[in-house]
Amino acid sequence: MEKLKQFITNIQENPLTYWLGSILGAFLILVLRTLLIGFVNRRLDGKKRKHFLKTIINWSAAFAMLVYLTTYFSRSSIIYETLFVFGDTRITIFLILTIGFAIVLALKFSKAIQEFFLPIIYERYEVDLGLRASINTFTKYFIITMTVLIALSSIGFDLTSLTVFASVLGVGIGFGLKNVMSNFISGLIILFERPIKVGDRIIIDGTIADVEEIKIRATVVRTRKNERLIIPNAYFLEEKFINRSFVNKELRVSVDIDVAYGSDVELVEKLLLESIYELKADEWSNILDDPKPRVFFENFGDSGLAFSVWFWINSQADEREFRIPSDLRFRIVKKFNENSIEIPFPQQDVHIIPND
């Protein structure tokens, strides 16, 4: 053992062998990582299982590389030289590398949990899509925070120094970060209170959109044109908007139609109801029987008799709320033509009174 230590010391004292030794050690770690990846690709089945194991191997190799290099260069003063002092803590290259590695590791670890472990819990307990998104967000930031704090504590970082940073941040918030922090706090409130959640269909300024992602500062929604709107989180706490999915996803749909004066109104009602039930039987089982479809004689219009037919569908999560009314109109026109029910054009009667 003493001879091995002396051998390593001799290597580190020679500049040429010093750097060659570091390269050789790093090379051996990379070779071992390549061999393990190849073994996983050849011997294991299942894309998800392979991805999980390769992720573990890659980050184990990265961790081993970091530990090896920091240990190998421990005799060098470069990585431990003080760059500046933050509070009572000396900031060194080693400290910066440790914090950076901890953050990256935390991000990868939280992603692995979200991909491989949390879905098992979601499926077992039938967690809805909105709650899944909230849990994923909290898991990500909790893991990052705890990992960084543990890493700082383990290398002797004085956590009380963070009070200096908090003071500086407080001044920054007062002068220029008010809106940013407002949206940040609003994002946390949204995740807890859940006035909206991922998958909800909302209406903002007359635009129908689906909530795709709730980030910590802003929410991403997708319109019917497949456009994305980036909306600050504070909007959902300060402004009025419609959340169609807040209680449930059932939706009442209405279709308006006029018929000519002189039409048999009882026959019109019968044909409208038949159109709905036939549409339900042939194409759209999403139309609900309860509440029952209803026909209303709305008004005596300028050009004809105004009718409205109401019915309910079981979900509005896709395009069915737009496609079903369109299909129903096609069927109504066909049945009206078969039964000689006229749909009137806009018209006006002009009476000319002759001068005597």
Terminal-residue CA separation: 132 Å
Kindly provide the radius of gyration, computed on alpha-carbon positions and rounded to a whole number of angstroms.
34 Å
Number of helices: 10
Strand content: 15-25%
Low-confidence spans: pLDDT under 50, at least 5 residues? none
* Lateral strand order in the biggest sheet: 6-5-4-3-7
Category by helix and strand content: alpha+beta
Return the average pLDDT rounded to an integer: 78
Largest sheet: 5 strands, antiparallel
Shape: elongated
Care to count the β-strands? 10
Q: Work out the helicity level.
A: 55-70%
Secondary-structure element string: HHHEEHHHHEEEEHEEHEEH
Task: Provide key terms for this protein.
10 helices; 356 residues; 10 strands; alpha+beta; five-stranded antiparallel sheet; three-stranded antiparallel sheet
Briefly say what this structure is.
This protein has about 350 residues and is α+β, with helices and mostly antiparallel strands. It has ten helices and ten strands. Helix 3 packs antiparallel against helix 4 (about 95-125), helix 6 packs across helix 7 and helix 9 (about 265-280) crosses helix 10 (about 320-340).
How would you sum up this structure, described in words?
By secondary structure, the protein is of the alpha+beta class. Helix content is 55%, strand content 17%. It is built from ten helices and ten strands. The protein has helices at 2-13, 15-43, 47-72, 93-125, 129-154, 162-175, 178-193, 235-238, 265-282, 320-338, and strands at residues 82-86, 89-92, 201-204, 207-214, 218-223, 228-232, 242-243, 251-259, 294-300, 305-313. The strands form three sheets. The chain has a five-stranded antiparallel sheet. The chain has a three-stranded antiparallel sheet with strand order 8-10-9, covered by helices on one side. The protein has a two-stranded antiparallel sheet with strand order 1-2. β5 (218-223) and β6 (228-232) form a beta hairpin. α2 runs antiparallel to α3 (47-72) and α9 crosses α10. The chain is elongated, with a radius of gyration of 34 Å. It starts with a helix and ends in an 18-residue tail after the last helix. The model has no long low-confidence stretch (mean pLDDT 78).
